[in-house]
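Q: What structure does this chain adopt?
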Amino acid sequence: MSDEEKLLVPLDSYLKSGVHIGTKFRTAYMKDFIYKVRPDGLSVLNVQKINDRLEIATKFISRYEPNDIIVVCRRENGHKSVNLFSKLTGIRVVSGRYPPGTLTNPALDTFTEAKLIFVVDPWPDKNAVNDAVKVGIPIIALCDTNNEANNIDLVVPGNNKGKKSLALFFYILTKEYMKSRGLIKKDEDMKETIEDFTPE
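A:
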């Protein structure tokens, strides 16, 4: 089996989405995922490692019922992607500002219980990470080269700022979740394309 066949989507899809293009800033947490640094200073993430972590994440998420999971995305570039993901999988999404205390304060109107949280970027979504730590549930996060990964149980490396890369992440997560939950049998059964997840 070639490396290409082991990927969740063709290599070309990963490269076109810019999922591997990091930032100029690199934290110690993320150095193992960096393949090289370009002449312009931007870090390039290892696509195979992105794919492998995504595969672990999709298998892990698939063990949970939709109503036990919350996905948090403050970044506007990801709103269309996470909302379509939510519509197709039934998984709850907070797109925009996450109200602090949502997971910890039963007195709030927004209070909800969850067994797993997925954040698009641990920095703008830090209130959600802090709440998840307090209630002791696993945290999966998309982490770019500039992210700190303390408190994150599973890091999925990748460009968590670009609309095309976020569209690709949520296209893959949707497809793999639906397959493992028996909602679709194979990749081809999913009618939505990466473009459907991409904002204008």
